[in-house]
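FAQ: What does a ligand-bound record look like?

Like this one, built around guanosine-5',3'-tetraphosphate:
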Amino acid sequence: MKLLESKICLEGKVLSENVLKVDSFLNHQIDPALMNEIGKEFAARFSDEGITKIVTIESSGIAPAVMAGLHMNVPVVFARKRKSLTLIDDLLSATVHSFTKNETNEVSISKKYVCENDQVLIIDDFLANGQAALALVEMVEKANAKVAGIGIVIEKSFQDGAKKLKELGLRVESLARIASLSNGEVQFINETVKELV
Ligand code: G4P
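The answer part, i.e. the structure of the complex:
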């Protein structure tokens, strides 16, 4: 998605060979107009999948997921990373190990909001090693719902998350695919955007 790639080139900061900082529009401050376009793009790409629900994980997955839900006219559920005072229903849970933070967390969704006949689109902001996405897949499958696809805003294609998900037969659509963050530069799988900036 050209608009997103241009935004990454203009505002993204390469912190290391593995980490891209995009706090100005996705991970801290949020650009609503860009999120709206992102939601529209996910809705277009998954229009043939009969999606009935979107599932994401707090916190940075919520903005793109809500915009996709608006354009697809379906509800959005986010997995919680912390126990909630009000989340007292039966829960679907999975563990997520974050390689970046080197910590393991249990994440959960209420059984009430993901049902047997749901066709679920999973959305997240980043795809790195795929731990968060795999945990979401596990919870959706525990509910006997179907994972119809996975929508990612920024895929770091040099890490193995996308490969793992595709090996499970899942459809992965990533709006920006980063081939490398070497030498302080963002290289996209599709190179053309570099000429725009
Ligand atoms: P994985 O889920 O794909 O295995 O990713 P990993 O454990 O490596 O990442 C843990 C957290 O760091 C996730 O967010 C993930 O989205 C984010 N992340 C991974 N790589 C990058 C990167 O290059 N840049 C940025 N900005 N984030 C990255 P989180 O801790 O759940 O944060 P949040 O959703 O609460 O913001």
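Follow-up question: can I read anything off the structure? Yes, for example: The helical segments are 2-11, 23-27, 32-45, 62-72, 131-142, 161-167.
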